[in-house]
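Posting this for the archive.
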Amino acid sequence: MILLAWMSTTNQALQDNYVCKNARISLYSSAPIEDIKAVSTIGASVYNATSDELAFSVPIRSFQFDKSLMQEHFNSDYMESDKFPRATFKGKVQEHIDVTKDGTYPIKVSGALSVHGVIQNRTIPGTISVKNGVISMTAEFMVKCTDHHIDIPQIVFHHIAESIQINVSATYSSYK
């Protein structure tokens, strides 16, 4: 797994790593003519509770739409999934969370978001929850299409919003 290889370069003990192989990542675009919604449930993430490093990766083709034509256009025309097969985020949680204590903690994660081959430095707000030793994370943020050179043809400009809402949720297991 690419993310585990990245985490092993952090010189932290592997027992500090937590892994999620089924992160749920959804996107939503509200536009005057038609809302666009898609979900992937195969995002991967690694969180190091000692170093506070966090990484996510999702295959672009894994997003499922209600309409197959929408999914086809998303992959071929907008995201160019063959050329840019993954979206990734590598960053650091700004607040150190004691994962041995139950609670819900607001966080900010600063790092590099790579979408459509364009890397943007971002600080993303989210939440870490710890309950009975189970760690979960959620985040909601906006991505501007122009920030990642995702071109929207003028003919469908009213169908797609300029900013896309992204929601992420992941539940982690200890990596041993």
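The chain has one domain: 21-174. The helical segments are 2-8, 68-78.
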